[in-house]
Amino acid sequence: MKRAIATVSLSGVLADKLEAVAAAGFDGIELFDNDLVASPLTPREVAARCADLGLTIDLFQPVRDVEGVPPERFDAVLHRFRTKLAVVRDLGAPVVLACSHVGADAVDDLDLTAAQLHALGDLAADEGVTIAFEALAWGRHIDRVGQAWDAVRRADHPAVTLAVDTFHILSRGDDGSALAGIPGDRIGFLQVADAPLMDMDVLEWSRHFRCFPGEGTLDVAGVVAATLAAGYAGPLSLEVFSDVVREADPRTTARDALRSLVFLEDQVGVAGQPPAPASVDPAFIEVAGSPAVPPLLESLGFSRAGTHRSKPVSWWRHGDAHVVVNDGPSPSPGPAVGVVAAPVSAVAARAKALLWPEVDRTRGSGEAHLPGITSPSGLHVFVSAPPGDDDDWQRDFTPSAAAAPGLTGIDHVVVAVPPDRLNEEVSFLRTLFALAPGTVEEFMEPHGRLRSRAFRPSSGDLRIVLNVEEVGSGRASTGITQVAFGCADVRSQVRALRAAGVPLLAVPDNYYVDLDARFGLSPVLLADLREHGLFYDRVGDGELLHAFTAPLATGFHVELLERRGGYDGYGSASTHVRLAAQRRH
Ligand code: MG
Q: Helix 14-24 vs helix 43-53: angle between axes, to the nearest 10 degrees?
């Protein structure tokens, strides 16, 4: 399928945009009229530049307010449209996008709209161009795709077709079923955009918060699938405006945009790239070696379990929780995470198809293929095969001790992401590993606020939580800020940490009074929580008991948690207390 992007989806001037789009590997563009008007290049020069870059101009957009116009003012519309058609001809664009009238004086008369679209269709046909008519979600009288189709049908002109824009359809509460019965050859163009679910003015929502498919929560794939099922065979084109995109480097945006189309093609089954892994599990945490690391790990109950066959890397474990310490010359910039996702070669090939950059690591002969991939925020993720397989990371180590019982494994990993990288980071987790996002949670911090979103695969135990800290300048941390280990009895783990002299987060007594007020806990349990400095939550029959180490200077800390009775969350009701306690440290 042909892949295109609207120039409005990128920052910069037109020449920069075209180069970024071509470099990312797109086939074509939608040319945004404002980009052309502001450019010193003539339409013919733009067409030539695109041709040199291997890009086609698939759409010129938009012409506004061309239907539902009071008849005495329609001559001016015809003049405007003719003038733009001459530009479209010089550009060599086959389709021009016309959007529904938003003006307060728009006439609510479908027959008038149809007649005016028909007249415009005559002009377009003379130039060999097709009109794609779009219902803007904030159109004055035509704001649903069904109404736009009604107008196109009544216009009854071969050069007048329907434009499908996933945002406009989904933001009005319609879905792919709104396209039922529309023949594919009457759909003139398909524009795709996603958005996070928000309750706000739809125009503001569209202008500032659109995002690429896979970054938001709209059922973009459903509308695209319905459009393809109708028989539409034109380009799949991204049209995204947002505050983030306005400020980002166009080359970064173009790459991210292309990934989102690959992801979308996957979802609707038109792709050729390797599929996402069927399941994803946590394997290990990798940290850079320093003299402080071994004593720290020992105080946390870890012991040395093996030595790498060819590299200055050691393997530490505590029960089923694994930490790899890299004493090599080029460790990852912060803690890295290892995951089990098979087949490893397919995950690596998929990362490549999605343009996610590889971590540069040497590999000794006979060693596991452990590809590393860098996320947009700089997190390194290493991919291993399941235990026992040739590409199992543990096979690269000579074991030095038998495993003693202890922690049950890595429960979750918290990654702090700068606000302007959040969409990309979400895209990384969704497109590469098919992790599904949970709802966005927001917490008050003593000096700002924290937005948090948990990601999980449909199968497997990997849990990654993305945090965006919005605090005063220079205070937010980045990378892995927390590793949470699961255990069967958090109280015994806390006692062991205390015995080893590990400072734990101090919990204010008021918290326990509040817990009692909320849950009516038994005096025995309440005393136990107080004594061990534990946080607590309960949902249905499920309970969470958890504790945190005091944060290091970097903000990094460890959580120990005991999930009882199928508790599935992260104890978010206590998060504000924990954040305040961490600030005190
Ligand atoms: Mg549109």
A: 20
The residue from 344, 369, 399 where one domain ends is: 399
Contact partners, residue 146, CB within 8 Å, separation at least 6: 174, 178
Residue 372: give its domain's CATH number.
Answer: 3.10.180.10
Report the C-alpha gap between 372 and 367 in whole angstroms: 14
Could you tell me the residue range of the domain that residue 135 belongs to?
A: 3-268
236 shares its domain with 129: yes
H helices of 500-574, in order, are: 509-519, 523-532
The token pair that represents 480 in the structure block: 């892995």
Do residues 165 and 241 share a domain?
yes
Distance CA 30, CA 45 (A): 16
Q: Do 480 and 513 fall into the same domain?
A: yes
Give the distance (Å) from ligand 1 centre to CA of residue 160: 16
Residues 165 and 300 in one domain: no
What is the whole-number distance in angstroms between the Cα of residue 135 and the centre of ligand 1?
A: 8
Q: Give the Å distances, CA to CA, from 209 to 264, 335, 453.
A: 19, 31, 17
Query: What pLDDT digit, counting tens, does each position of 187-200 carry?
Result: 999 999 998 877 78
The full DSSP string for 189-224 is EEEE-B-----S-HHHHHHHH-B-TTTS-S-HHHHH
Please tell me whether residues 433 and 508 are part of one structural domain.
Answer: yes
Coil vs helix vs strand at 277: coil
Q: What is the pLDDT of residue 475?
A: 59
Assess whether 373 and 476 both reside in one domain: no
Distance 253 CA to ligand 1 centre (A): 18
CA of 203 to the centre of ligand 1 (A): 12
* pTM over 0.85, yes/no: no
Question: Same domain, yes or no, for 234 and 101?
Answer: yes
Residue 92 Cα to ligand 1 middle (Å)? 20
What's the maximum distance between 2 C-alpha atoms anywhere in the chain? 89
The three-state secondary structure class of 13 is: coil
pLDDT for res 365: 82
Name which of 237, 245, 154, 259 is nearest 206 in CA terms: 245
Domain count across the chain? 3
pLDDT at 473: 57
494, part of any domain = yes
Q: What is the pLDDT of residue 584?
A: 85
Share of the chain above pLDDT 70, in %: 99
237 CA distance to ligand 1 centroid (A)? 10
